[in-house]
Amino acid sequence: MSAAEEPVPSPTEAIPFFTPVNFILLSVFAVFLYVQLRPKAPVTLPQGPPPVVFRTFIPSTLIEFNGEGEKPCYLAVRGRVFDVTPGKSFYGPGGPYENFAGRDASRGLAFQSFDREMLTEDLKAPLDDLKDLSADQLENLQNWEERFLEKYLVVGKLVAEGDPEAPKS
Amino acid sequence: MASETPLLAKLDALIADVLADWNIYSTVIAGSIVAFLIFSFITSKDPDIHPFLLARQSTETFVRQPGESAPFRSLETPYGFPLRSGLNVRDPGTPKWSAGRKGDLRDVWKTAVRGAVNEDGSLSGKQSKIYTVLGRKAIEHSLDQITQEINVIGHHLQAAQAKTVAVCLTDSVELLASIFAGAFYGFRVVIVPHNLEPQILSTHLQKVQAEALIAEAGALDLSTVAKGNKRLSQVVWVAKLGSRHMDWNEVPADVKDTLSVTVWHELVDEKRDLAGLEVPTYDPKSPSPGMTTVWPSSSSEGKFIDFEPENLVAAIGALNSTLPGAQRFDSNDLVLSIDSLSRSYPLCQVLRALYANASVALNSVAGESVDFALATVGVSPTVIVASSRTMSDYHSKVMKPHTGLISSITHWFQARKLDAGNMPSHGLLNQVGNMGPTSELSFDKLRLICISHRCDADKDIRLTSEQLTDLRIFTGARVVYALTGPGVAGAVAQTNVFDYRRFEGASHFGSPLSSAEILLTSAADDQQDRVVEGQITAAGPAVVSGKTTLPAQGRFRQDNTLELVS
């Protein structure tokens, strides 16, 4: 635009460089350059859920984890506490195995029975020693245990109340 | 609608007005924009590895013990899978889908001598070579010749009923031969660093109850060493090429009765025909003896680490599998170790190279602190194994001061490329960039540098991300950076070969190898979500006695890579 005002323009000087269209084009170029060459921060992924701390349970602390509401759902097999929350529809409230939630399920699994009689009702009693089980029942239990080990996490161990390993408080 | 038409018209007028100024410069600029876009589209490549794989490099187990972090494992062997425990050796004749054996050092040598295999499983007949680098000269040794030496020395020491053999040599074929002779002929090899004071060596020999000693001729005073070592009865001198004409069989008078002295090359010459060129046959199920190395600790004494063969093969297997397929050692590689074989990382890398039928170059000056430029002149390696001290010295003394203006500019562009996740190629730009710091070195074929850092080494020699980037750019090779610890064969953790990301300060050490898992123990666990910092504990098949705590504080970063703190 300003070129017209120059007194005696020579042919090359007649073409002005700083015109709006050139300015726009240069800015576009600059933006592309910046996008290509800007320092890029490495990709980050959000951290997963924090790991569960391994705990020693006694029956009266394990009973808390029966899957009601938002609580996780645990059950114990021969002293090992499994986190069965992913299978809450089976082991949680309303599921076919709900009696086992927060309990020592060893005897029930060995007998393939989900009845209340299979549980040690007295939470202060020593753990079920399973001495009276037949070979078939023990094998049954073994199979269940292996399946649990494959599918679920061991998050603690279960000891009887008053056991030297039991937590103090 | 009525108000829109004048607006559009105004806009139209404005654009027409602006475009009216279009001139030759505008065409040039528009042309360069198009050219730039086409150029960046053509040159843009997918990063070498998916960025998400670098954003979380190891898996955290879901359960942890109080006072500890959860164990971290390599992505190859996450929680629920067995850690890597061996070489997965498949003997000929075994069913195709059966799991391989763990193997031991005998399998490593047997595979090396067998030579490379074609893709269809047939032998290609291409055997690797071992070179010893002496200054600018490289001497070639064939594996058959070394098999012969293994047999001669093995027979000799077996006949002398030695159960523990101390080897005090610089990196050489004799050292390798002694290691394999131990595996085949059933004696434990103790690798003692070679530059020790006679007094310290003597105490070392006492400690390990060595019955035989293999050492460099003339490097030791036998009277001092033999004093107090009642069990020591055999000494094998290894004479250097230049001093073989001398008579090394002489024994000092005071130990003449107890010591029998022989010379390596004379022994080999003498019994060459008896021993034969065949790799000794062995029952893979029979146990092979372990190996002992010295971990240099702050006290001059050092600490003995008794590796079982299981530890070594687990480490060799893991070091191999941690590299993606195309990056693994193969028969076209020449692996040069400029770090001493008495340290487990270089040792495992060299054994792994032999197992992969790669050629190996050993350097007699190899050690923790060597001149990188001098140590690499004799050969043109594809892989270099070095220590963090060597590389850090080289970077600060040579690479940094010799970086000129042109190399700085190419460095800037190449660093951009690395940030984008691509390794710059050995191209023209690289040649220009190389005009500065590394021009005198023979790095044309170099593709990988394996650097190890002792977890209890000086803080100053920890390499920074910037230094690793400089090494990548100026040598044109990828870099892996490993953390080693006493009691862990190979390495504790190693960076991903495609991880070119740059961070402030000292570099991290990547993820644990697949042969061990790492957890951090901390006294300051007040039931917080995670223990993020603490003393490093490693457990797994590569760890002596299964589990060990390292004298170092570590931290897992947000991308689940291990770094050292304090």
TrEMBL record, chain A:
This is Cytochrome b5 heme-binding domain-containing protein. It is found in: Endoplasmic reticulum. Residues 57-159 form the Cytochrome b5 heme-binding domain. Its main location: endoplasmic reticulum. PANTHER family: MEMBRANE-ASSOCIATED PROGESTERONE RECEPTOR COMPONENT-RELATED, NEUDESIN. It holds the Pfam family Cyt-b5. SMART domains: Cyt-b5 (SM01117). Belongs to the cytochrome b5 family. MAPR subfamily. GO terms for cellular component: endoplasmic reticulum; membrane. The lineage of its organism: Eukaryota, Fungi, Dikarya, Ascomycota, Pezizomycotina. Gene3D superfamilies: Cytochrome b5-like heme/steroid binding domain (3.10.120.10). Keywords: Endoplasmic reticulum, Heme, Iron, Membrane, Metal-binding, Transmembrane, Transmembrane helix. It comes from the Eukaryota. GO terms for molecular function: heme binding; metal ion binding. The chain crosses the membrane at residues 15-35.
Automatic annotation (TrEMBL), chain B:
One of its GO terms (cellular component) is endoplasmic reticulum. Keywords: Membrane, Transmembrane, Transmembrane helix. The lineage of its organism: Eukaryota, Fungi, Dikarya, Ascomycota, Pezizomycotina. This is AMP-dependent synthetase/ligase domain-containing protein. The keyword Transmembrane helix applies. InterPro entries: AMP-dep_synth/lig_dom, ANL_N_sf. PANTHER family: AMP-DEPENDENT SYNTHETASE_LIGASE DOMAIN-CONTAINING PROTEIN (PTHR43272:SF11), LONG-CHAIN-FATTY-ACID--COA LIGASE (PTHR43272). It holds the Pfam family AMP-binding. The chain crosses the membrane at residues 22-42. Residues 141-546 form the AMP-dependent synthetase/ligase domain. GO terms for molecular function: long-chain fatty acid-CoA ligase activity. It comes from the Eukaryota.
